[in-house]
Design a protein that fits this description.
Elements: E1 2-10, E2 13-18, E3 21-27, E4 39-44, E5 49-55, E6 61-65, E7 70-75, E8 79-84, H1 92-105, E9 108-113, H2 121-134, E10 140-142, H3 150-156, E11 160-165, H4 171-178, H5 189-194, E12 203-209, E13 212-216, H6 261-267, H7 273-289
Parallel strand pairs: 3-5, 8-9, 8-11, 9-10, 11-13
Antiparallel strand pairs: 1-2, 1-4, 1-12, 2-3, 4-5, 6-7, 12-13
Bound molecules: guanosine-5'-triphosphate, magnesium ion and zinc ion.
Length: 292
């Protein structure tokens, strides 16, 4: 059987690449949960269509979830590039959640601060550098996609990269700079402030160089983590996980248990208050919704 790669998905429609050609895919039976990055076994129907017969097991898969449903985003990734910008409406909770997502999937994250040409960006970027670079050790890159993305190229090479971020941060603008043939649709910033809708409506994978792919996907406003286990949350915080195993109770969730090593570290100033606040917020909302 032939092997193909899912390079685009919109709703339940997929485009499969096979031997350098793109085909509309029809799926076999009811199982239509495929995502960009999936490798599949297929049958050729004609020169426009293929039938997907089977999913080849994924090396990794990232998804987000609220309590009731989850949505798969992309698979078989080497790097998640979390694009942030001072405008429109930066949401720190979103950044923290994306980092947890990357950690839980064991995919290296890169924080990309875009729109450095805006005057407000200098102060914003230095704060992000301090909180996430100096304190947590995450790699951070600053650029202005409207000027150029040259610096980014060396981070992409040899990897399958996903651009993820809130709507309007510039993911499609970056994609077009790196790979002009993408011709990804971008929109004026005013649109986000007034309607809050997304410009990019389907995820797409581009081969930007040999063994190097870039995936542009629709913006997200929320990044739910309900698919993770409560007891695992702290493992996905590089700043909390060093203290694991040192609490009095081995099922400690580090909220108000006595002799908690994480709370002790927080009080001693070894854990940043904003990070613990985020930990506490997701843990409490998880407990509430799952009726722990
Ligand atoms: N000033 C400035 N504006 C930028 C920069 N990068 C992108 N923009 C603008 O930001 C707006 C949104 O850019 P898009 O690339 O459409 O954003 P997106 O992240 O793809 O948005 P969604 O597809 O909705 O998720 C556009 O008007 C871009 O021109 C930048 O580096 N500086
Ligand atoms: Mg876009
Ligand atoms: Zn504890």
């Amino acid at each position: 059987m032939h092997h193909g790669l899912i390079v685009s998905s919109y709703g339940r429609q997929f485009i499969v690449e096979y031997q350098g050609q793109q085909y509309q895919a029809v799926t076999k039976g009811k199982k239509t949960e495929f995502v960009v990055g999936d490798k599949v076994k297929l049958n050729l129907i004609n020169d426009k269509q293929v039938q997907i017969m089977e999913l080849i097991p994924r090396e990794n898969l990232i998804y987000r979830s609220d309590l009731n449903r989850s949505k798969i985003i992309a698979s078989n990734l080497d790097q998640i590039i979390i694009v942030i910008a001072v405008k429109p409406n930066f949401n720190q909770n979103f950044l923290d959640s994306c980092l947890i997502c990357a950690e839980s999937s064991q995919i290296t994250p890169l924080i990309l601060i875009n729109k450095m040409d805006l005057i407000e960006s200098a102060e914003f970027a230095s704060k992000i550098q301090q909180l996430y670079g100096d304190e947590l050790g995450y790699p951070i890159l600053e650029l202005s996609a409207v000027d150029n993305c040259q610096q980014l190229m060396s981070y992409l090479t040899g990897k399958r990269n996903l651009l993820i971020g809130q709507s309007g941060v510039g993911k499609s603008t970056i994609t077009n700079q790196i790979f002009p043939e993408a011709k990804a649709r971008t929109a004026e910033i005013t649109k986000y402030e007034t309607s809050g809708s997304h410009t990019t409506t389907s995820a797409a994978l581009y081969h930007i160089a040999e063994n190097t792919d870039l995936i542009d996907c629709p913006g997200l406003q929320e990044f739910g983590l309900f698919h993770l286990e409560l007891t695992e949350f702290a493992e996905y915080f590089p700043d909390l996980r060093n203290y694991l195993g040192q609490c009095k109770f081995n099922n400690c969730v580090h909220l108000n248990e006595p002799n908690c090593a994480i709370i002790a570290a927080l009080k001693a100033g070894k854990i940043q208050a904003h990070r613990y606040a985020f930990y506490k917020r997701i843990t409490e909302s998880y407990k509430l919704k799952k009726n722990y």
